[in-house]
Amino acid sequence: MNILKQINSAWPTRWAVVFLFLFLNCSPDQSDDPIPYQPFADIVMNLNLPENTGLRSTGGYRYIGGGIRGIILYNQGSNVFYAYERNCSFHPNDACATVNVDVSTLFMIDPCCNSQFNFSTGNPQGGAASRPLRKYRTTLLANTLTITDEIVDQ
């Protein structure tokens, strides 16, 4: 009878260990993949062309090819342009991880994970993302804007 009490009193401890083991092994994966790198040839744009009219004013933007899923080119003002990778920084290998400019034109958003990104920095300002968008080097000379695949501010 004494042995039976010892066995019965050990069961709660054993179940707690089994439960803890299963819980820790079934926890969600908190890791995240980096944004893949895809080199591209320099993109040279004449800002005087009609298709670039929107880029001539502060807050203007345009989607262009390049990078992984394309680039959002944004006029910050005072002849400062930012080129952001459209591949979201949260689970970038997901098929729908593509960033767009929100309809309000106040921020960028990935409709897949609802992460929102600031135009000035590319930093997340809401949603699941914790890392900024990839930013590419831009150079303005007169009315010619050049975007390179060099990553800046990361």
From TrEMBL:
The residues the entry assigns to the signal sequence are 1-31
Entry keyword set = Dioxygenase, Oxidoreductase, Signal
Q: Name one GO molecular function term.
A: 2 iron, 2 sulfur cluster binding
What InterPro entries does the annotation carry?
A: Rieske_2Fe-2S_sf (IPR036922)
Q: What is this protein called?
A: Ferredoxin subunit of nitrite reductase or a ring-hydroxylating dioxygenase
Organism per entry:
Chryseolinea serpens
